[in-house]
Amino acid sequence: MTEADVADIARRIHTRDVSLWAAAPEAQSIVGKRLGWLDAPDWLNENREELTTWARDICGQGFARVVVLGMGGSSLAAQALAGVFGKTEQGLPLVVLDTTHPAAVTAAAACLPETLFVSASKSGTTAEVTALTAYFYQQVKAERGRAAGENFVAITDAGSALQRYAEAHDFRRCFLNPADVGGRFSVLTAFGMVPAALLGLDLDRMFNSARTARAASGADTLDADPSALRLGQAMARSALAGRNKLTLLLSPQLGAFSGWVEQLVAESIGKSGIGIIPVIDESLPIGAYGMDRFFVAVTLTGDHTLDETLQALEAAGHEIDHHQLDDRYGLAGEFFRWEFAVAVAGALLAVNPFDEPDVVSSKQTTRRLLEGKKEEQANSIGEIRDDAGLTLRMPISLVDEDAGLSGQLLRFFQNAGPTNYLTLMPFLYMTDDVQNALSELITALRAVLPLPVILNPGPRYLHSTGQLHKGGPNTGLYLIITASTDTMLAIPGEPYSFSDLNNAQASGDFLSLAALDRQVAHLDLGSSPQQALAAVTAEVQLRWTESA
C-alpha cells in the first residue's frame, strides 16, 4: 500500500466514509451511528470548564472517595486515569468496581455516607451495573434515607433505563453522553472525563492533548503526524503476516493504560475469524518471544526503563512501533491515537471495529441459567472431580477420565502450540493472596509454554476481550476459574444473589465458548482458592518436568 493510499484512508475516516468498514447498507447505517468519537475533543472543549467547576463542588461536599460502577468501556478509562495519575490535591481517590463477586461487593461497602458512586453504562441495562447500583443505593438509603440519591451520579445515554432510575431516585447528577459514541471509544467524553474531573485532573491540558492528536491524524493538515496511521497500518500488516500477538510495553508510570488498550484492540478487531490478541503486563526473556509477536511501546520522554529491552527486541528481528509522550497528560492524545489506529486497522483488515456481534451469546446463556433453564450443550460437557474438592469441566470430546483431574488439566495446557495463546479467566475475589497465587501459576505456565499466558479477570473480560474469544481466530485456550463462597448477598429486585450471578456468568461463558468449539475448560477450586491455585502450580512444575 502506497503512502497516498494510507493518506486516503485518513481522509475517508475524517469524512466519515462508512464504506471503509461495511458494504451492506444496514451495516453502514450502524457504523454511521458510531463515529462520534471523532468529535470527542470538541465535546471535551465544550464541557471542560463546567465539569471542572462541578467536580470542585463535589470535592467540597464531604466525600472521601469515588467508586465507579461500570464495565468495559464505561469504566476502563476511569481505571486507566486513576492508575496513571492517582488523586491530585484538588481531587478524590477513585476506584472501579467491575465485579459481581459478593465478597468484593461487600468489601466496597465501607464508608458509605462519604462515598460518591458513579454508575456508568451506555445502554443503561448492563447487568452488573444495574445490580451494583441497586445494591449500593439500598445500602446508602439505610443510612441516609431519602437523601441517598445525593451519593450517586449516573453516566448513560439519553432515554436509557439508568437515566430513568437516576431520575426516580433523585441522583445528584445524570450525565447524558453523545449517543453516537461507542463504549470503548468514549474515553474523551463523559465516561472518561467525569472521572478525570473527580480525580482533579487538568481538563484544559487533556483537551489540548486530544486536540493535537486529532489534528495530527489528518492527512491534509500542516500538523499531520503519521504515528496513528503508521500504528494502524502496522497492526493490520502484522496480523496478516501471522504476527497477531500485539505485545504492549509501557513506561512504569503508564502501566494502568494497558487495560484500556486491551479492550479497544480485542473488541474492535476480534471478529469474523480475524483478530489481534493484545498481550499486556508481561515480561519475558527476549529469546522466549516467538515470531508471532508485534511490539508496541509507549514511553514517557526521559524514561529509559525500556531502552535495553527495545534494542534487544529489534536486534532479534521483532517489529516495534515506539511512541513517546512528553508527559502523562499526553495520554489524552494517546487515547485518540489508538482509536484512530484501530479504525485504520479495521479498514485494512475488512473488519468493522465499531460493533461487537458475539458478546450477546454469553449474556443470553447467563440469563437462561439464572432462570433455571438447562442448556442443550450441557449434555456434551464432561466433569472430573478430585479428593481435594476441585472440579474440572470440559467438552466431553476432550475428557480422558483415566487421566484424573491433574492429568487432564496438564493435558489441556499441553494442547497449546506456538501459535496459540492461553487465557486464565478467574471469577474470584481478587485479594492480594489470590492475585499472588495467580501470578505464580502464570509464571509457572510461562516457563513451560511457548506462547502468551494472559490474565483476564471475570466478569470484566466479558466486556473487553470476550468478543475476541468468541469471534476471533480459534487459537485460544481458555481456563475459567471459580471458587465457592459463603458470602450470600441479595440483589434488590432480583430472585438471585450476587453469588448466583457471578457463577452464572462464569458458566454461561464456558458453555458459550464450548458451543463455538473453542478449547475451554472450567476449573472450580472449591472453598480455598489460594491453596488450590498453589496446588495447581505445584502440579504444573512437577508433572511437566516428569513428562519432559
From TrEMBL:
InterPro entries: G6P_Isomerase, SIS_dom_sf. GO terms for biological process: gluconeogenesis; glucose 6-phosphate metabolic process; glycolytic process. Keywords: Gluconeogenesis, Glycolysis, Isomerase. GO terms for molecular function: carbohydrate derivative binding; glucose-6-phosphate isomerase activity; monosaccharide binding. GO terms for cellular component: cytosol. Its EC number is 5.3.1.9. It is an enzyme of class 5 (isomerase). This is Glucose-6-phosphate isomerase. It comes from hydrothermal vent metagenome. The lineage of its organism: unclassified sequences, metagenomes, ecological metagenomes.
